[in-house]
Design brief:
By secondary structure, the protein is an alpha/beta fold. It contains five helices and five strands. The protein has a single domain, classed as Rossmann fold (3-Layer(aba) Sandwich), CATH 3.40.50.2300. The protein starts with 6 loop residues before the first strand and ends in a 5-residue tail after the last helix.
């Protein structure tokens, strides 16, 4: 269905996590981009228009991951956003769901959980026939 590689944006303030996730999904055929801050995430998302975004809630500088999620969904409705965080507070989960997150994963998590969540997002993209927009 998609002639181009699916684009994945990784948003995490830990460089090592970004590097690992980039490597993991590049090996699976994605074009992968990363951002270490919320502002960088918004800027990158506007440029690359990712199909899927993996977002940590707690970013050290500037806006947090929930605000990143909110802003991405304003200009990129079709982006499937997945929260990956240590924070399992019910109010954060409710807020993320109200903003349109497709999965909320809490750390520690397995590579399989992460891949399965991304695979579900891909199936949703293909089912709906829209990648982003």
């Amino acid at each position: 269905m998609f002639s181009k590689k699916l684009k994945l944006l990784v948003v995490d303030d830990e460089k090592d996590i970004c590097s690992f996730v980039k490597l993991l999904f590049r090996k699976r055929g994605f074009s992968v981009f990363s951002a270490l801050t919320g502002r960088q995430a918004i800027s990158t998302a506007k440029k690359i228009r990712p199909h899927i975004a993996l977002i940590d809630i707690h970013l050290k500088k500037g806006i947090d991951g929930l605000e990143v999620l909110r802003q991405i969904k304003e200009f990129l409705l079709g982006c499937r956003c997945i929260i990956v965080t240590w924070d399992s507070a019910k109010e954060k989960i409710r807020k993320a769901k109200s903003l349109g997150v497709v999965s909320y994963l809490t750390k520690p998590l397995t590579i399989k959980q992460l891949i399965d969540s991304v695979n579900r997002a891909i199936k949703d993209i293909r089912k709906r026939g829209t990648a982003n927009g």
